[in-house]
Amino acid sequence: MRPVSSAEEVGALLSRSDSSGRRRRSSPVQSASPRPAGCGCGGPRRQSSFRDDVGHAASETYLVTRLTFSLLQYLGLGYRWMSQLLALTIYAILLMPAWFGAILSSIRGRKSSDERNRKGLDLYIPKDINRPCPVVAFVTGGAWIIGYKAWGSLLGRRLAERGIIVACIDYRNFPQGTIGDMVSDASQGISYVCNNIASYGGDPNRIYLVGQSAGAHIAACALIEQAVKESSGQSISWSVTQIKAYFGLSGGIMEGEESLSRYSPEIVVKQSSSQTIALLPPIVLMHGTEDYSIPSSASQTFADVLQQAGAQAKLQLYEGKTHTDIFIQDPLRGGRDPLVEDVLSIIHVDDEITQEKIALAPAPRRLVFEWQLQLARRISPF
Fold first, then answer.
1. Number of structural domains, the chain?
2. pTM score, two decimals?
3. Which of 213, 264, 296, 380 is catalytic?
4. What is the CATH number of the domain that holds 357?
5. GO CC annotation: what is one (predicted)?
């Protein structure tokens, strides 16, 4: 297939770019399209040039910008949202150079056009794979309106540097898709990871599901829905037993009466059988105490409901952290990253050799000046 041009991105605002081809361990990220289990990985790919990489990064940055304006369009452009738009613009200007660099370094290989409802996922693969690696299936946030797989580039890079394959899963946004569509898309992405990750050097029996913000809600719905299907003997394409743990980062719940009973993880858990609850993996909910977009009480409530139902669940709070601190500002700061360290401590809990390697590895470098991060934090609309 031919590469996607910027003009095509403009013409199809919500199209997504995917790539197919064989695994290249020298590249930190690849793009893959979910296919039926057992299918091949396609033919050979050419090495993309630096010019191609810049073009693709520019296209994706342009797409993300258009998605952001779409969010504001649906929310309205009154005084409050005009001020939010100004804050978001300044926030993006402050952090975009580093973010653009992360996207640029993440894009490798040839991209091919694909309709939004056919989705895709980006794979972040460690450079040296000597044995099957643990895998993180990541569902990004975006207020259910601007979710996009590239948001996971920072987390993908950090974890890949520490021996973990990361699959950033894409899904449809509102109004292109309903919550049910988003959950279905995420579940299809998880299914692809479970059934195909071995061909990329991943361990299909060591898959961890991670969701952030709206993505935490979508991923939780997909996980619980799968447990309901599995416990009732329905046909499934992936098994909850392959998920070693679920991490919910700064997650929230949907509001409204229509279909709330189906897409509120709390309500579904309360109504689920003991057999369904028994299938759920350990659940870790992580939240900043100064998150004013989605208060940490949302995670506290969900943790309480899970524990009362008999599930293994715990809450990890980060004092003084906002909605974007633990996912954006901290990774851009370089050095010690509390969120990444906590996730790694669970993934590598039984692997002392890997723990020692991580402890001796050089700390990630800073990507943004501290004054930029502090200013961005103060004006962030999230």
1. 1
2. 0.74
3. 213
4. 3.40.50.1820
5. Golgi membrane
